[in-house]
Design goal:
Elements: E1 5-9, H1 14-25, E2 29-34, E3 45-49, H2 55-69, E4 74-76, H3 92-108
Length: 115
């Protein structure tokens, strides 16, 4: 069986890095994306600096993936942000960014629309 092709959003720290390292250890080809530079250096790891709330950037990333990988076996929508304020103290822009990243970004992903 050939290696799985795995895309992990939010792969620049925390759970995303741990997921990427786990998949690499399992022999997978891993593509990570996040708003900052990668923290992983591995021959089977590719990274895109992409904000998952930017539909054009996400579409561009998927166009490149289609050319490079030909297929995507696993998508892990891990990207997420949180606010530490009480809801009454959370600025509207902060709340909007949380909803866009944690919920709407998964709907932007072309892979999420594939059957």
């Amino acid at each position: 069986m050939s290696a799985r092709h795995v895309l992990i959003t939010g792969a620049t720290r925390g759970i995303g890095v741990a997921l990427a390292e786990h998949c690499l250890a399992a022999g997978d080809v891993v593509v990570g994306c996040g708003r900052s530079a990668p923290t992983i250096s591995h021959e089977r790891y590719t990274h895109f600096e992409v904000d998952v709330t930017d539909a054009k950037a996400v579409d561009g990333m998927f166009r490149q993936l289609k050319t490079r990988l030909k297929r995507l076996d696993v998508l892990i929508n891990n990207a997420g942000i949180g606010g530490m304020n009480a809801i009454a103290l959370t600025p509207v822009e902060a709340a909007r960014r949380i909803v866009e990243t944690n919920f709407l970004a998964a709907l932007i992903s072309p892979a999420s629309r594939c059957g």
